[in-house]
Write a structure and sequence with these properties.
There is one protein chain. Helix content is 75%, strand content 0%. With 202 residues, it is mostly helical. It has helices spanning 2-17, 22-36, 39-53, 69-95, 98-105, 110-122, 129-147, 153-162, 166-194.
């Protein structure tokens, strides 16, 4: 989540600020490519290149920090692509707002306008989507844990289905449901703190 959201927001801001430039086209093309390819393909490519040919990271298992890098990158790729496209769109919408035009009329520097006005207001609508982002990463980990032989909950869930272990399958389904609802509830609370306009009045 941290890697995907932070890099996605940064690339989205870069593409919006450099609209129409080489960097804008590069970031947009890269995001379209990344969001179009499933995690399964990226996982196999990362294993083949960085673990098989280059030997920089372990191919699989879960025995230390080095073993977490390739699975983390695999899960973060989709988040980076989605957040990049969303942030670019929101940034371009904010540019035409009256308060941005007023800030420019006051003579504020471009960097201050971007940081204090554009990014601050463009990032608010993205907060509710973090709940679904957690769900997406959680569901994606089922496949990733199988590929990288990670002894995680997703791997156990897949194994319980394959072995017809109904008790384990139902138990993990309930767990995932409670986790998803709790994550969305926390995101809603954070959204209320960030944007007071959506708070429920007494």
């Amino acid at each position: 989540m941290l890697l995907g959201v932070s890099l996605g927001l940064a690339l989205g801001v870069l593409a919006a600020v450099k609209k129409g430039s080489f960097w804008d086209y590069l970031v947009v093309a890269l995001s379209i490519l990344l969001i179009s390819v499933p995690n399964l393909v990226f996982a196999l490519l990362l294993q083949q290149v960085f673990a098989g040919k280059l030997g920089w990271f372990p191919v699989a298992q879960w025995k230390g920090f080095a073993y977490t890098i390739l699975p983390t990158l695999t899960l973060a790729i989709g988040s980076i692509a989605g957040k990049t496209r969303n942030m670019r769109t929101l940034m371009l919408e904010v540019i035409s707002e009256d308060y941005v035009k007023t800030a420019k009329a006051k003579g504020l520097s471009s960097s201050r306008i971007v940081w204090s006005h554009q990014i601050r207001n463009a990032i608010i609508p993205m907060i509710p989507s973090l709940g679904m982002e957690i769900v997406t990463i959680l569901m994606g980990s089922f496949v990733v844990e199988q590929i990288f032989a990670i002894p995680g909950i997703g791997a156990y869930f897949v194994q319980s289905i394959q072995s017809l272990d109904y008790t384990m399958t139902l138990g993990l389904t309930v767990f995932f449901g409670v986790f998803v609802v709790s994550a969305n509830f926390v995101i809603d609370l954070i959204y209320g703190l960030v944007d007071p306009r959506i708070r429920v009045a007494k």
